[in-house]
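To start, one record:
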Amino acid sequence: MSEVLETAIFDLLAKVAPGKSVSPEEVARAADPEGWRRTLGHVRAVARGLARQGKLVILRHNKAADPDDFKGVYRLRLPLAGEGVVEEGSEGDPGGDLEADGGAAT
């Protein structure tokens, strides 16, 4: 299922202008037109994984959201120039609002 959803996400994003986004509903409908409602939760899970890898940006209120800590309505877009995977030990983060340790207790 995740490969189908990844393909649907990137196919839809390839059709929109750079910087534009798609909704999870659009992805679910593209991947499973008959059972798209059951697929919405899977879209969120796949999007989180892709965002962690820097291949995708999850947007809330048109701003990059932490893939491990977002709720509610969201959209998906490709990373813009300068966004992407942060190398271990480098400064900053691509979304601008992620904690360096991911919020884990040490």
